[in-house]
From TrEMBL:
GO molecular function: ATP binding; ATP hydrolysis activity
PROSITE patterns: ABC_TRANSPORTER_1 (PS00211), ABC_TRANSPORTER_2 (PS50893)
PANTHER family given in the database record: ABC TRANSPORTER I FAMILY MEMBER 6, CHLOROPLASTIC
Name of the protein in its database record: Fe-S cluster assembly ATP-binding protein
Chain ranges of the ABC transporter domain: 2-246
């Protein structure tokens, strides 16, 4: 379970998160919605351990351990995974080499043996086929020349291989057409498990038609201001965010 208590965060003197509280239980898919500038992406970055943010107060507990005391790579080894809104292209880094490196780094952190090359290839090809990732994509540099949908599928492939405990999807639907949205959502839904939790950050109901949340939270001015069931997303789709509007941060 992830439990966030009174999280206060600034960047360059600007307060972004202002006493945020949030709990996501094992097996739960929680969605966060809200207007631009409310702090949604900042929350995802701070959980994952991105630098530049100053945490002034609060805790982020994963199974009782405070993630704020760990480096980003240590959080990843504990099972935290962030799927970016805009995945980076990394020229010169082969996709398969990258996937093997992250898998074996995780296995080493868990004191498991490294995968043999045949086992690694079988694992990647099986997961890639389900996400309609062809072999040519796997032969290229990581995300280089990929479409928006291909980059998002590559993120979900990494998630499928790493089997994280807490998955954060930061506006994964951004830039996806209908077919890509379906493929990515099916990949996420296949990973839903009673021991795995998801935090889905989105502006729009359309993603939540495919990845149906257990809970929906509205974020405004750096804190959670309302929570409810999946029907809350439909209400927001109909009424908009005028009630919760805030200046972009």
């Amino acid at each position: 379970m992830i439990e966030i208590k009174n999280l206060v965060v600034e960047i360059e003197g600007n307060r972004i998160l202002n006493g945020l509280d949030l709990t996501v239980a094992d097996g739960e898919v929680a969605a966060i919605m809200g207007p631009n500038g409310s702090g949604k992406s900042t929350l995802s970055y701070v959980i994952a351990g991105k630098e530049d943010y100053e945490v002034l107060d609060g805790e982020i507990l994963l199974d009782g351990e405070n993630l704020l005391e760990l480096e980003a790579y240590e959080r990843a080894s504990k099972g935290v995974f962030l799927a970016f809104q805009y995945p980076l292209e990394i020229p010169g880094v082969a996709t398969m080499s990258f996937l093997k490196a992250i898998l074996n780094a995780q296995r080493k952190a868990r004191e498991e043996e490294e995968l043999t090359t045949p086992d690694f290839l079988r694992l990647v090809r099986g997961a890639a086929e389900k996400l309609e990732i062809n072999q040519e994509m796997l032969k290229r540099a990581l995300n280089v020349g990929f479409s928006g949908g291909e980059k998002k599928r590559m993120e979900i492939l990494q998630m499928a291989l790493l089997q994280p405990k807490f998955c954060i999807l930061d506006e994964t639907d951004s830039g996806l057409d209908i077919d890509a949205l379906r493929i990515v959502s099916e990949g996420v839904n296949a990973l839903r498990d009673e021991k795995r939790a998801f935090l889905v950050i989105t502006h729009y109901q359309r993603l939540l038609n495919h990845i149906v949340p257990d809970t929906v939270h509205v974020m405004s001015k750096g804190r959670i201001v309302r929570s409810g069931g999946k029907e809350l997303a439909l209400e927001l789709e109909a009424s908009g965010y005028a009630e919760y509007s805030t200046e972009a941060a």
